[in-house]
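User: Hi! I'm working on a homework problem where we have to compare a predicted structure to a textbook description. Could you give me the structure for the chain below?
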Amino acid sequence: MTTNTNRRKFLKGGAVAAGAAAATLAMPNVSRAETTTLKMQSSWGSTSPFQLMAQQYIDRATAMAGGRLKIDLLPSGAVVKAFQVQDACHKGALDAAHTVTAYWYGKNKAASLFGTGPVFGCNASQILAWIHYGGGKELYAELINDILKLNLVGFFSMPMPTQPLGWFKSHIKSADQLKGLKYRTVGLATDIMQGMGVKVTQLPGGEIMPALEKGVIEAFEFNNPTADSRFGAQDVSKHYHMGSYHQAAEFFEIIFNKDKYNSLPKEHQAILEYSAEAANTASYGWAMDQYSKDLQKLINEDKVNVYRTSSTILQAQLESWDKVLKRLNKDEFFKKIVDSQKTWSERVAFYDLTNSADYRLAYEHYFPGKLPS
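Assistant: Happy to help. Predicted structure tokens:
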């Protein structure tokens, strides 16, 4: 009797457990976080490829949040100007921004080290790796929180290809030809080019063409063949110089008002952080496809002359970097970051340069005579 009773209890309990399991399968766990909408402004115009990359980040974040996290993306100027998004986020006028640290290096020149710093042999992907594994993330937080005391949280995304030296009225073959030119760039590149005798004006991308028309500048760099061609660089110049040390390792900075960020559920905080990493692949892949197409269009349709920047100019840039670093390293925190990057680069670039295949040799083997000299 006791055995039969226990058997009936066991079977009944198993049926209840099976029913619960079926209910779990039919109704899987979903996020119970409340739906939140964030207002983000970029430092880019609505037609800029960088605006598309900001959207790639947003698409990934909102998809991973299952629709419970929404981000409204606004172009530069919708709320504030391109160089003002950091202040707007700090004050809470914006919840978030998509920008670059070079746009606010006026607050502290160390900011530009997180994207447009000296070249010790590492490329942008390897310096982004320094952010995550070499102490860069902690140094960035120290600058934001302890030194500048900004109410911000920030992440980095999209290792940018080397930025060209830029657009000129003629073929620039030597550093001497740069002296006295009125030239647009931003961040520490300003110091580097000024050290070479260039007259530099810092401008966001949207102000480059008006400045050219007014004669404020006569030569410029922005970022890549796609962005440059979209605002009409090929219409004012036919001499495009590729390769440079002024901005060879940049990436986007995605910032949030810290109070707003901390008020979000932990799962949303994680999504906002790790979506920056997810966007790396999407943005870089799109860039490789589109930048290469637009460079060919500039050459074949717009009849732009494309050159590799002279090695003598590159050497002059390195020598200018040496002088700038000697001066700015007098600041203890600035030097702390530079030393960290230099230590990282000595080891990481050694591995990469020792191990990497000679891709130029392979390209010339299969496509002889195509590369510019």
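For your comparison, note the following. The longest strand covers residues 36-42. Residues 179 and 197 are 5 Å apart (CA to CA). Good luck with the assignment!
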